[in-house]
Amino acid sequence: MKKVLERDNITIRKNLEKLIFYYGATDHWCPIQYYLDIKKDFPHGDIRLCENGFRHAFVLDTGREVAKMVVEWISGDLTTQVL
Q: Where along the sequence do coiled-coil regions lie (predicted)?
């Protein structure tokens, strides 16, 4: 497994309007300071801190809740074409 040594700010900047960052408030893998740092560096980005208490391994118990949340986030960006 490779270690991530630093955030790829160039790629984030190029794609900021396409990205949603969702940080866990109680995630030991990713401290809240990371959320605060990226909010400061990209103040116009869609960067969110979990208010639902989801854990890092959300797929084990709250996968449906997270999926519903993501659908709400992206539904405005999706379009359906009837052929």
A: none
